[in-house]
Each structure stands twice: as C-alpha cells, then as structure tokens.
Design brief:
Oligomer: single chain
Largest sheet: 10 strands, antiparallel
Number of strands: 10
Distance between the termini: 50 Å
Helix content: under 10%
Radius of gyration: 17 Å
Structural class: mainly beta
Order of helices and strands: EEEEEEEHEEE
Strand order of the largest sheet: 4-3-2-1-5-9-8-7-6-10
Strand content: over 45%
C-alpha cells in the first residue's frame, strides 16, 4: 500500500495523479488531507503554490526520442502545470449534478502542447463556449469524459479519465457541435 512508504498523519492520504506540461507528462503520488477531492484540487483555495509529486516518473516528449526519467520527488510551481488528473484507477465523485437543468456537455478537443484531450465541456445553455473561456475567473477548467493521447507517440495509447483540470489559457480549445 502506498501509504506505508510515506510518513503520514492520521488525516493524510496518498493519491496517484498525472501532471502535464506542454512538453512532458509526469505521474506519481501526492499527499493531501483525506477531505481533499484531489481531481479538482487545483481549482480550489487549498491548492498548493508548489505541487510536490513523490515517487515520480516522467516522459519528456520534445523533438526526437522520448526521454523517461524517475525522481524521488519533483516540485511543480502551480503556474507551470497545464493539466492534472487522478490516475484512471482512482475513483472520485463527479464534480457536478448530472440532473442540473440548463446545462449541456459540449464535445471538445483540447490541445496542451502536443497532448490531445478529447472530452466534454459542461456549460450553461444560456452562454457560449467563447464566453465561458473568456470570462472564467479560475485558471483551471474541468473537462469531462476524456481520452488523452499524444499523436506523435501512438504506442503510448490512450488514457481515459472521467475528468481533468486544464489550464484555460495554455490550451487550444476546439469546440464540436457548439450552438451558433
């Protein structure tokens, strides 16, 4: 069990996560209080200024051959994180009420560097995707039902997660079937 390799307090928990920058992806463990819903953590006031990832693996996907590295710890300034989600094996509750009226799930393709996130943006039926992106106050937005891939690394497969947070201003947003 992951908790055994860390010195935790009784109210701590370990959650495996994935972190993306425009050129790399990292995976490892974060330690938070048990009350934190880690998948949406970066959208809250309790988000750290520096995210510590323990037992971290990385895949750097720049020009040329991918580079794989390991770290006991790696630290990310929050403003350098482009996307974040819990590992697909972690189950967390949805961050919205699916029965809420006047909401729609728009199919989107979000590009962060060369990473492609195919998913859905949840917005009000009274607004447009452009308004949501322009007027949002938080740096991170949640997208849902996502398949993540890297077109230049097809052997890497697809990572499927129920939701992720992406930095709104670092992403290119392709909207499919949007109201005009």
């Amino acid at each position: 069990m992951a908790e055994q390799k860390y010195n935790l307090t009784p109210d701590d928990k370990v959650t495996p996560v994935m972190v993306y920058t425009t050129t790399s992806m990292y995976w490892g463990d974060v330690i938070t209080k048990k009350t934190i819903r880690v998948g949406g953590w970066l959208r809250t006031d309790s988000a750290p200024l520096i995210l510590e990832l323990k037992n971290a693996q990385t895949l750097i996907l720049g020009a040329g051959k991918p580079i794989s590295l390991s770290y006991q710890q790696i630290f990310f300034p929050l403003d350098k994180i482009s996307a974040f989600h819990v590992m697909p094996t972690v189950k967390e509750e949805l961050y919205y009420d699916p029965t809420e009226k006047n909401r729609v799930m728009l199919p989107v393709t979000v590009f962060i560097g060369l990473f492609r996130f195919n998913g859905h943006m949840r917005i009000s039926t009274m607004t447009t995707p452009g308004n949501v992106l322009e007027l949002a106050k938080e740096p991170f937005m949640t997208i849902f039902d996502i398949e993540i891939s890297h077109p230049s690394l097809p052997q890497g497969g697809v990572v499927s997660v129920p939701f992720a947070v992406v930095k709104r201003t670092e992403a290119l947003w392709g909207i499919n079937n949007a109201p005009q």
